């Protein structure tokens, strides 16, 4: 392709480049481009908008996988065992507990009678953590995780609470944790976005894309939602009938013409544009490779419980491992529906059992698999919903539980987290956190800390104020650290 | 003491030096030289001219002595018992140590203060209090237009004089004027959001008249597309969307407001009325309207404040979200019209600006007396039916057909019953039937028309509910009395709601009752101060120091990429200072009250800016200014700006010859990738529009807050959750994927290729140049032409099939390349 014509053009372009743009805008990379590689098919090595950045202090975890249990799982059916509640089943809750509190559905179905769990709890592992019969696989990893029973939130309706858990605010327009993290740390992956979102379950999480939005941060940092079927990223496939060769030739021509314009205008945005097209091209092959599980062993697929071509939470867990293996900084999985008011589709019997089965094997497999591959030490795994459920029953078609923000359970594993620990206590009814309360802001501060970020220093100036994920709050949950 | 700047360091050293020398010698403390600077540095911010926390100011010795709400500051000669020293030393029971939440004064500084008091606190008798008010709170006065040293510098209007005066000071020359093709493309993209045609470029290039440029500007300002382009600018601030937001995100009908904004800008409705109608159109006297204005217009305009989200989730406390809406209105009002961040004062007195928490809730009270707006599962109220306007003919036609089919299907299930009834009719009964029924009964059931079936069935079972409801609806549709178009409007309650200050912004913790009121740091509110109309008039009051500046700054920002005040939404003390304060004030006064011409005219403002020599400069980066002015704040050149999301789509549509110029109407549904709508909580259908509506301007794309159209979102279109006064311009791989692979952009490329192939060019080289001009409004240079020739040759050689297929495919690739260029999506 290097005709004499092009050679002379290249020389001209090169001269123009050096005369007009001798001003530190990735000029070394460009110079090499304008050299022998001009108009060649080699991918140029230009500035990556997700280039890794140094943390504030040495990080304990490099990547994070956040398993978001959308709808608010009942801690009282899963982890927080309360024999007293079983004993007092059906009795009214003492007034002292609920005075001055507000709940969702307060006027209609909200109950005041205590509801003891019908689940069988057993202690497991060295740590002796209680886990119910609904999570047999998860019971097998209690020595690798830290259970925190004393989590607390502020908002008790799904959409705002979910926003709060993701952005530290119930208001729309704030950046999500994943956006903050890639803003602070960039990403190790050259071929995939730094913040990826995977979804499974009966419906999308309430609030949709704002849960992984970039708020006022540059949109580069917004979560990229992979889809469970079809293209994992929107518009990832070339249009029908466009071969890889033709796509490459197209991008080559775009690059060369963009370079010519760069020479003409000297605008550094054009270098970013060129590198964005290169990343896009790499994603066209890296993302399909990512979701292609044919290279995974039968044993691995069995460990997760992944069925061929069937979208599931388990499959997303496996994808999450593959994403962090490839250097993606922040992977977030959403699974619905954990809402258990007792109405149709959300009762504490069959429906709850089903959603537990949906996640149990996959999440346990993820921790085991990460550990076996030596990835767990660098990967922080977080599990939890936007809030928990009340010790009181709620009477709809069947008895369920209402939203509860004063105490609920989350668990953490991997990078920098103490393994085999049960942290925080609730009172004998499971209503209030009575020891080591960990508010959402504290959890955010702690997660950032494990990733090597000081939550007070990770700020962005917007509308005259330095904003941070933790607003003006956040205390480290130091007992969580290994 | 924190020491950040060298000046401060030397000042601090001087102070310490002075202490070291003076203290042992016991010389008398010099108030002006030693005490006043200390107080100024550490105390004036909260206890000075702009703020008097605790009703205390210490910017004169007399004020400091007088004290504030906690009591007398000090008695001369008695430092140890003085409130001032107790506060500074942190020994008072209830007052926190001062400076509040800052490192305390050093021991030497405290000693100095105490010594001054003990020595009698002498100070000059004529000491004047500080008068410095934050610049933005001082009413702009039309400044003198600067006289330039270099008389030959290119100026077309006073804007240039202000810009050049500053550049002369910095000894920087301006950039040359951009070439004509670039200028025309810039003007078109900026004023109407579409590129020019190659013919328009040629005409302009060859127009030798002295006012050729001004003529183009006038043409573009008169174009109806001007309103579309700048309407979108305003809709960003108004947080416009076609759905309710929150989790359910049900669709809403408020596009009449969108169309009103476009129309108002097109006829250059003066900004004062534009503002009053949007804030209080429901409260104005209709006889005050300009001629030929429908009384509905100001009502529709109040949709500005109905662009709040509505939470329809079950189990919520509707009051909580009503309060959220009211707060959103306050925050939007102050961001859009005042350029102030009042939201800080929702929970506490503003830390930096003179806005108390009480004042926040005084503003809140203006917006708090509106009818409920449909939170929870209630029926939304404040819905205005537009008389004489019905839903689109297509929508009606669709419903008509569906209703007709449905009725016929229903009636056919009754066919045998009707036939039986007919056969059993007695002669007497038969004669009593109406003539049309008797006539309709003549053919057999299967031969009857729907009208005949309906007539007979109505006689057979007139009270069949299922029949009646369908039949009535069909009759209505046939008569042309179908569903009215509606839009959301503001309406005031007959009795105002009580408003309270909320402790920490929590609506469950109401505190003192508040009355509507404006900000005390600004001009006084005229009138009874009771409703939104008073607030609206206060906003456009000539004594308002902020609004005109804030608006001209945001217009300027559109043309130059950043405002004269960079923090376009914060003109408070934490915002950045204007780069050209006199220019800002000149533009503001010119906008509000020009010497000639109509006041508050947006079109005058646009004309002024785009005809300036400053605007017409080349945007080429000037390496020699890279260190002096890296961000181009001095405007010694233009700036390349990536196009807005909508303009990217519209330009591609225009280039490919597909764009429908149709103005206004209900939202449309251009194609988007499958599965986007399933990302929200409620899975909704996105049925891509066909025909003309597939190719309308992006302004008309149905905007779902929870699942915005990805081709818009990926290019930073605002989310509609809160007022957006400045768009981000991100540059991401997802944008590349959209332009390369998205179905709609591929369709554009296909049409573009066909358009180019059909063109009467002599050969492919000419065709390349032509395609390039269609896309970029200029001719390719030699490098570009060669590279595209090479690409075409490569593609033609590679494609298979007959000549026409090969050519079509090759040109499609050419079209894709051109539509993906950085320059295509950039205003240079």
Short key terms for the protein model shown above:
heterodimer; A: about 475 residues; alpha/beta; 9-stranded mixed sheet; two-stranded antiparallel ribbon; 17 strands; about 35% helix; about 15% strand; disordered N terminus; B: about 850 residues; mainly alpha; about 45% helix
Share of residues in helices of chain A: 25-40%
SS content category of chain A: alpha/beta
What global shape of chain B is seen?
globular
Biggest interface, chains and residue tallies: A-B, 84 and 87 residues
Structure description:
Chain A is an alpha/beta fold and 482 residues long. In chain A, 33% of the residues lie in helices and 17% in strands. In chain A, strands 1, 4, 5, 6, 7, 8, 11, 12 and 15 form a nine-stranded mixed sheet that branches. In chain A, strands 2-3 form a two-stranded antiparallel sheet. In chain A, strands 9-10 form a two-stranded antiparallel sheet. In chain A, helix 1 crosses helix 9. In chain B, the strands form three sheets. A two-stranded antiparallel ribbon of chain B has the order 1-2. A two-stranded antiparallel ribbon of chain B has the order 3-4. Chain B has a two-stranded antiparallel sheet with strand order 5-6. In chain B, helix 24 packs across helix 25. Chain B is globular and about 125 Å long. The N terminus of chain B is likely disordered. At the A-B interface, helix 1, strand 6, helix 9 and helix 10 of A face helix 29, helix 32 and helix 33 of B.
